[in-house]
Every structure is written in C-alpha cells, then in structure tokens.
Amino acid sequence: MPALICGSLAFDTITNFPGRFGQQILPDQLHILNVSFLVPELRREFGGCAGNIAYSLHHLGGAPVVMAALGRDGDDYRQRLQAWGVDTSLVTTMADNYTAQAIIITDNDNNQITAFHPGAMQQAERIVVPARDDLRIGIIAPDGRDAMRSHAEQMKRAGIPFIFDPGQQLPQFDGNELNAFVAQADWVAVNDYEARMLCERTGHTLETLSRSHLKGVVVTLAAQGSDVWINGECHHVPGVQATQVVDPTGCGDAFRAALLFGLERGWSLVRCVELGNRIGALKIACRGGQNHVIDRAALTA
C-alpha cells in the first residue's frame, strides 16, 4: 500500500575536502572565522529527504507517494521520479522559485558542512494532504517549517499513522511545537544529537517519550547501530559494517525508507531497524543519496 512522504526535493552539490575540518578551524579564532576549503571533486546529485526516501522505498518494493515542492528548474526531477513509477500527483511546481539546493562539503572524517537554500520548499505548506483511503503510513521529514506543522496536523486528521523525523529542521522548533509534533505522531526517528536536543526542548527523556502513546522512538548511532525505545525499554540494534565508507549523504533517508517499508507490512520496530541498518550500510558505500543498489530479496528475507 502507498506510503505518503512529506519532505523536501532538492539538488545536492557535493564536494569532498581531502583533510580534516578540525585542522583548519582554530578554536581561539572562532570570533573571526574565515576559512576556505579546496575541494578538488564536485558533483551534482538529486537529493532532498523526500526524494532520497522515495528512492530506497521504491527499490525495496514499496509504493512511495511524494508530497513536495519543486521550483521552475525541477522538471528533470519530476521526470526522474515518474520514471521509477512513483506517484507524483502531490509534487507541485512553484514557478517563482528555484528548487531547494544543498551545498555539502565532507572531510576525511565524514564530518559535513552544509549550506542550504530552501527555495520552493518554503511554499510546500500550500500542498494539502489528500483524503485517500489507500495511504497506510506516512512520514514528516525535513521540509519547510510551516509545511511540516500543517502536514503533521493534516495527517493526524486524516488518520494516517506517521513517523516524525525532524532531522536538520529540529532547531527551528521550540519545545511547545516539538511536543505538538510528538503528540500527533506514532513514531519518532532521530539521530543521537537530535535526540538530545529533542529531550532538552520538550522536557522529556527518551524513556518517558517511549512510555507515552508513541509506538516507538528510534535513535540512530551511525556505525554503532541504533537504539529502539519501546514502552520505556531500550533495545540496541548493532550496526552493519559497510564494505567501504564513501559518502554519508542520504544514509538517514535510506534508513527511514526501511522503517516505512517494514512498518507498513506490520513488522516489529526492531526488525524494521535491522533492515534500516543494512540499507544504511549499502548507501554509505555509494556516492549520493540515490545511487545505491538494493538486493530486495536478500535484504527482506
């Protein structure tokens, strides 16, 4: 059954710095920070959370419905999604803007510095969650601030269970707003840094969050795997060793696609996370967020 993916569609300009950021930034000179990184490699990829999630979900055998805004330069992206057979009926073109753009610099330790231009994403709240009986699950992924708020409310009213995945947009919301998201969601998925910020702003712990109405809280821990909080208990799911570490861009999105795939099929949350760890290990071995190859039969066995 289809899964509704509310999030961004963006173009990623990805560069690699052949060094360590920490060697270029002097802690005692942060008040006059002025650094320049030589990046010999540069490439442009299709990205954005909604696009990346849809890519992995489609290749797992799911049926993504993408709800997102493109700009006047987004025709190629729409055609790309349609070529996979993705439902793009809720992808809207905002002709007075460019498609969102991310410029990402990754160093040799896989630390990242990102500059993001939201573009058309800032108008994504104009798209409305439809009244459809076939939408079994959804996700609120990073998107325009107003879009995330309105789409969460609309999903709740429509009776679509959803994952709240604030990602890099989490700092844009205060404690009351984050508590409202949590109250409407069925699951929460964050990384370890986001988990600390979420708890600090909402006044909850991961334990108390998981003892609420939520069906689970997932905290990703990069190569160490993930923690799954259910009814106040933490279940650690070990990481999967990647064949090589090439590019972390989009790993979290690939992981969340696995969550959607498994939850829609009634899997336990731990089993969904096990698949997510495997998909993340596949993705990190490939450049970009939409180039990894998924052996569906092997991964979902």
Walk me through what this model shows.
The chain is of the alpha/beta class and 301 residues long. It has one domain (2-28, 36-299): 3-Layer(aba) Sandwich (UDP-N-acetylmuramoyl-L-alanine:D-glutamate ligase), CATH 3.40.1190.20. 33% of the residues lie in helices and 25% in strands. It has 10 helices and 13 strands. It has helices at 21-24, 49-60, 75-84, 145-158, 175-184, 192-202, 206-210, 251-264, 269-284, 296-299; strands at residues 2-6, 10-16, 41-47, 63-71, 87-94, 100-106, 112-117, 137-140, 162-164, 187-191, 216-220, 226-230, 233-237. Helix 2 (49-60) packs across helix 8 and helix 5 crosses helix 6 (192-202). The longest helix has 16 residues, at 269-284. The two termini are 19 Å apart. 46% of the residues are buried.
Q: What do we call the CATH topology?
A: UDP-N-acetylmuramoyl-L-alanine:D-glutamate ligase
Silhouette:
globular
| CATH architecture grouping | 3-Layer(aba) Sandwich
Largest sheet: 9 strands, mixed
Q: Roughly how much helix do the residues carry, as a percent range? A: 25-40%
The CATH first-level class comes to: Alpha Beta
Topology, please?
Layout: E1 2-6, E2 10-16, H1 21-24, E3 41-47, H2 49-60, E4 63-71, H3 75-84, E5 87-94, E6 100-106, E7 112-117, E8 137-140, H4 145-158, E9 162-164, H5 175-184, E10 187-191, H6 192-202, H7 206-210, E11 216-220, E12 226-230, E13 233-237, H8 251-264, H9 269-284, H10 296-299
